[in-house]
Amino acid sequence: MRNKYRVLSVALLLSFSPILHPGNGLMASPIKRNPAPITLSHNSVEFEAEVSNLYCQMNLEESGLHREVFEYAYIGYLRLLEEHKIMKSNIITICDFSQSSRNRRLYVVDLETRKILINTFVAHGRRSGGEYANKFSNKWSSHKSSLGFYVTELTYTGKHGLALKIHGLEKGFNDKADRRNIVIHGSKYVGEKFIQSNKFNGRSFGCPAIPNEDVREVVEDMKGGSCFFIYHPTKKYLTGSKILNG
Asked: Which of 67, 71, 92, 219 has its CA 20 to 30 A from that of 56?
């Protein structure tokens, strides 16, 4: 990673009793606490070793996720954990929009068991690009995807069936996700069957839509305050994100 990061003193609670914040509407069941605190610097040997160990043990390379993408996700995860913005500390979900939409580019991983829980397809916004996403926006009615870190919230049933609300944490990049009604939901225009008869998966109005057959499992794993990261190697985001560079 080229960027320099300040030292974060965090407790890597790969499973922990959730911290409930007044008014956020989130509830979770208590989970066993890991009391061992680890101090890591983002450019330290220890940090690099931890990232490499997780990356290798979860076989992320074999699943198509580059190490650099996972490292960005882990940096943000540690910062959000330190700031008590995530409640479900064992789960990170990574949406890698540097990949073709024909790929399974959504990764729900469990840091406690060090396993990929699910690896599936995910749509980008229809105005973000065709097979590849390359344009992003935080604006209302842009029909583009928004990059950056989110925290998952509650589930609900809407016009797409079961859906999961997500809250954007990065001003100027995704903090209007709530007003734009950006949620995780199922769709028939995303999945193996769809790309058998199309050049690439369908596109949404900006939501990270996933195959209908996977929505219940994905939502169940992600809901309740976990870290969700939408990645693309856009310089404006990578250099402007306060979570990555703060």
From this structure: 219
